[in-house]
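Long-time lurker. I teach an intro course on protein structure, and each term I like to show students one example going from raw sequence to a predicted 3D structure in token notation. This year I'd like something fresh instead of my usual example. Would anyone be willing to generate the tokens for the chain below so I can use it in lecture? Attribution to the forum is fine with me.
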Amino acid sequence: MPYCKNCNKNYTEPSVQHNVSKSHLSKLNQICRFPCTPIESSMQGNINTFWLRNYRSKSIDIFFTKIEPWFYDICREQLRNCSFKSNSILKCAYIKPFDRRLKEEKSFKTRNIIITVASDLSSIWNDVKENLVREMTEFQSRGSGWSLQTILGLEVRVNRYNPLRVSSYIPLSANIVKTKSVVNVKNFDFFCFKYAVLCHNLGNQKNKERVITYKSLLEQNIYDFDCISYPVTLDDISIFEQVNKVAINVFKINRNNQISPLQVHSQKENAINLLLVTKNSVSHFCYITNLPRLLSVNTSEKDFRKKKKKFICLKCLYEFKLESQLSVHVMHDFCSFEKKRTHIKIPTKIFNRIVDHDVEDCYSFKYALLGGLLPKEEEIRSREKDFDNMNWDLLDFPVDFCLLSRFEEFNSIFVNVFGLNEKDEVVILKATSNSRDVKHVDLLFMTNNVCASRYYTITDLSKLLHPQITKDRTRPFFLCKACLTHFSSQEKFEVHHSLCSLYPPTRVELPSIENNILKFENFRHQQMIPYVIYADFECLLEKVDTCDLDPSSSYTNQIQVHTPFSFAYYIVGPDKDSCKFVTYMGKKGEDVVQIFLDFLGQEALLIEEKYKSISKIDRSSQEDRNRFNNAESCHQCGKVFSDSSDKCWDHDHMSQKGNLRFVLCKKCNFKYCKSDFIPIFLHNFTNYDCQLIAGNLGYTENDTHVIPLSEEKYISVIKNINSSIQLRFVDSYKFLAASLAELVGNLSLDQFHHLKENFPSVDLELLRRKQVFCYDYLDTYDKLKETSLPAKKDFFNRLHNKDISDEDYSFVQMVWEKFQIKSLAEFSSFYLKTDVLLLADCFQNFRSLCFSIYQLDPAWYFTIPGLAFDAMLYFTNIRLELLIDYDQVLFFEQAIIGGVSQCCLRYCEANNKYMGRHFNSSLPSSFISYLDCNGLYSWSMSLHLPTSNFKWLDKDELQYFNCKENILNIDEKFNKEKGFFFEITIDYPDHLHDSHQDLPFLPISQIPPNAKQRKLLLTLNRKEKYICHYKTLQTAIANGLVLVQVHRGISFTQSDWLKKFVDYNTIIGPRKLSSVDNTSISKPTIIDRGPNHLT
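-- Reply from a regular --
Happy to contribute to a lecture. Here you go:
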């Protein structure tokens, strides 16, 4: 179990979670009395962690100023040993202003950066500060409601930078071997570097791949190899070059299987060129005999066959036709590591739509920007001094386009940066809203396979995008830079801009007109998953010794560590014989969680074998054959069978019988496949069990992935066992949002099938209730050996801060005697077994009920909202048309306001004859009424809702609806089959202000005066271009508001398609779903477009 020396305790959660926990941060500030304290060191000093404590700094800028010298000291001290990688984590405490009891620690991280003796520490520190401040700002701007209370400190993590080491023989790929340009010595020791260098002196000698060939050269001592150690690092090569007065260039094979430079020191012909090949953790040096031929792997087969001599720059690998061109290229030092001019291949179709300035890569941004400000290329160098007033000092060259905000603000300019995807389509990398007040410059950012990058001036963004928008070269359009949506007229663009500018720039991807129908398609979810597992852990609540805490600052006092000591799981199969209960009691020092995962892995493989044994189709039944032959359409999708070849005989693969289940089309039959996962349900998994098992899952790209709820909590964890089966850990509380005791109380005795199966001769009344356990008393393995029931006081629960009742303790005594329990270990196993079986019975009952009502198995889903959404689609059989017009999406998004709560009159006193002696007859009588309306959500969802045919209103329709009588009579005219959303200007007459001041109509979302965050406000002001539903507008007009103008509108077909689903869940459903909070099935749903993209 991991141990934290700062907290002086073991912990069960993953290290990442422990390091950001409240107890860990509190402990750091207790023990770290100096501004900079080393708090952790591992791997023989290769990994070190330092804590820069905050001492009374309220501002983040002041805090950074104070710790800056300490950051430099850490870096300089580490550089005395070697280069290193470093990242920083800023830890802060946040509080909810409206409820100061709600506190939480947040962490903001930077990426790892490589720091060498040549690094500019001040520049690195500025990047760290800027990145952390940006993360803090983004967190607070998300509308979370958190307010910064205090800055806890900065954690600086330092990892020794170990360059590639080389060792044994690795075969080359076929495309490199066929070039015949590399000698790969078949050595089986660590001296591949030695053989590769000596190969340079072999000339035309044969058998260069054999180690024996180099015996004579080694005896001649041509080079001094004693100056380096083996395996050889890149730093060792520099030492070897200095001692032996030679030049060595090293190339590598990148991820795209192309050659790129790794370390180039010389462009001379007599330089020794080596190829570094890697495989897993092993690397190997080879000698390059002909570099141009080797580089042919970077080009096409056609170029490879050309035998014309090529002149290549070894640093950027750009090919020149003439040697003189290469000489000029090298002479001007275009390819030094600080100043290089890299050749990047530009697609032919955009070549004439951008300008490539002949400058070094690192300064390409500056000249690309000037190219966007000046009309002609030749003016840039002649007028470069005119732009000295621009503050270029705010930039670090080469420029990261993500860090341009300060430069843009200071110089009153907006820089839009675009790139190309794999299909050479233009995509947004960084863009701003389409403001006309500030000058915009459009740049193209491109990289190549050797990690070089350049900026180019885009002369006309519309022309650049024209090929991917339309094939008609004569067709003009107007482009929105914030979303790359195009319009046929300036007027339409202006209307779009008014809404699009309110959102962050993003590339829009909407459904196509052929694929814009939302309907039920998860037919496979209508079959029960054959195998489901229910599991639980029991933990020792080990006490934690703590010292006195500082009352002058916030802290968390950790009192216990939860150490799993046993687990149990119950496999529910398709029949009684396939059900299986497993329990395990761990020993001191064992990793119980890992044993649990190993057990489940073996169970998964056994279940996979059962999945593979598919029962054969049985066509012997005449009734089944008649049913199959007479079927005219697919049972699922309703598609009419055109011929018999599209008709499929569907049967249950897990059943012993192969009888006909459904007659399906080929497409639906394919969807009706078995599950490729085994769901494992743990009650309250997200908040508790997830913390226990997350650290043992072995996070690799192809092994485990999670569905996060936050950085520390997961909705589900999915563990791949192999390519065809996986374990899916799911929280049953996400479906049954109640304690296990409450769920058990909702079931009758005849519903505890699995409990009765495992306790056949026991009175179920003793087992059907949630058992009582002495959680806090059990804090060591030794107590498991105790042979008597603990006293009543030992059942005190520190979490709820209360004792158990006399009735509960009497029940525990009866259970202890009835089941002849002999030790606390047995009592723990009994408690764990009943918990798991009770959970299995509750959830299996829930599965059966859902399947009988909605024909869906909840075990396919992660949470009940996913189940509810599919249930709605299947129950209503609705086909909803999705929006394919981005302007319509923006239009409807502006109509989303949210709920409002307002109390204008904070105190009211009644005066009437029913108040007895408090009644004052000399004053007018007054009453206080309490009004409450139930079921508002279900009522609103039962109204007529949009389904299809979303269309913009034309001029004639807009003119028609500019009359208030026509708006009030919409339902009568269209018989409620057609609905509308309007963009309006409406007046609030002065004579209504007094009567409407408690709850004005038409709330609006905007930033109040002297505030920074957008809020929902109830105002009596005139509303300009306000978007609302026609029912809302009718209510406002009926209560005296004056319609001024209807600017735009959308019509759609509507119906009360959701009413029967809501009514069923409101009236009929609760009678059946007594074991679940049924209101969650029919709660309102809205899909967020997200901060960065819309799909």
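Some talking points for your students: Residues 348-494 form one domain. The two ends are 43 Å apart (CA to CA).
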